[in-house]
Automatic annotation (TrEMBL):
Residues 3-138 form the Flagellin N-terminal domain. Keywords: Bacterial flagellum, Cell projection, Cilium, Flagellum, Secreted. The keyword Secreted applies. This is Flagellin. It comes from Symbiobacterium thermophilum (strain DSM 24528 / JCM 14929 / IAM 14863 / T). It is found in: Secreted; Bacterial flagellum. The lineage of its organism: Bacteria, Bacillati, Bacillota, Clostridia, Eubacteriales. Belongs to the bacterial flagellin family.
């Protein structure tokens, strides 16, 4: 019997160290809820998981961008609706002024409201803005709004471009209209019909933009949901399985501790031979 080297104790100690390390890792997974907490846990899984996380965060931000795009379109459409309502009122006045039941002094009175409506259309077109960006004037008509609705940088698949319109009095060609005479009123009716058609077409375009953006939002949400589920399968811990693993190593650690104590006790028996 030897006392300088206790192989049984060393083996028990090695087993105890292994079991303690495994139990500690299992406890960490249970505490965090993640199967992969660091690269050493699963290097390939971590790399794939991080790529998926970047995609998921990009998709969630794209949803917010698309929602902002919907808000922009709703703002523009609201301004266009007000302008169309005023055009309809102007047409009513023009039809009234075109009747021979009125004389020119009567038409002059109607023209006062008519002129005020033209000015209000101009003001509405110039004041309809979203985040300080003008939406319904000449500057807006010559510009485009790119809404980034994808997680990447592909301009063909990740961007929806919105085109605004010029609904100012000049853009609608109503700035010089008057209904001071019967002839002017008749001309105004035809011009206003064209202006109303222009605004109707613009509103239809805005509606199509909104429907497209809302469709994109739903698609993005589904993509984010599916990627989140996939990332969870890679990174998240199976809590039931991990609890079973933790219990296993906890028992093994207790057994290793007990066996280490027994191995150390075996050397104590040698002392009895020396007495």
């Amino acid at each position: 019997m030897r006392i300088n080297t206790n192989l049984a104790a060393l083996n028990a100690w090695r087993a105890l160290t292994i079991n303690h390390g495994a139990m500690t890792k299992s406890l960490e997974k249970l505490s965090s809820g993640y199967r992969v907490n660091r690269a050493a846990d699963d290097a390939a899984g971590l790399a794939v998981s991080e790529k998926m996380r970047a995609q998921i965060r990009g998709l969630n931000m794209a949803v917010r961008n698309a929602q902002d795009g919907v808000s922009l379109i709703q703002t523009a459409e609201g301004g266009a609706q007000k302008i169309q309502d005023m055009l309809q009122r102007m047409r009513e006045l023009a039809v009234q002024a075109a009747s021979d039941t009125l004389d020119d002094p009567d038409r002059q009175l109607l023209n006062k409201e008519f002129a005020q409506l033209i000015e209000e259309i101009e003001r509405t077109a110039n004041s309809t803005t979203f985040n300080e960006k003008e939406l319904l004037n000449a500057d807006a008509a010559s510009a485009t709004f790119d809404i980034h609705v994808g997680p990447g940088a592909d301009p063909d698949n990740d961007v929806i471009t919105l085109q605004m319109a010029d609904l100012t009095d000049t853009g609608l060609k109503i700035s010089e209209l008057t209904i001071s005479t019967k002839s002017d009123a008749t001309t105004a009716i035809s011009t206003l019909d064209n202006a109303i058609d222009t605004v109707s077409s613009t509103r239809a375009t805005f509606g199509a933009y909104q429907n497209r953006l809302e469709g994109a939002i739903e698609t993005l949400k589904i993509q984010a949901e599916n990627l989140t589920a996939a990332e969870s399968r890679i990174r998240d811990a199976d809590m039931a399985l991990e609890m079973a693993t933790f219990t296993k190593y906890q028992i093994l650690q207790q057994a290793s501790t007990a066996m280490l104590a027994q191995a150390n006790m075996s050397t104590q028996s040698i002392l009895s031979l020396l007495r």
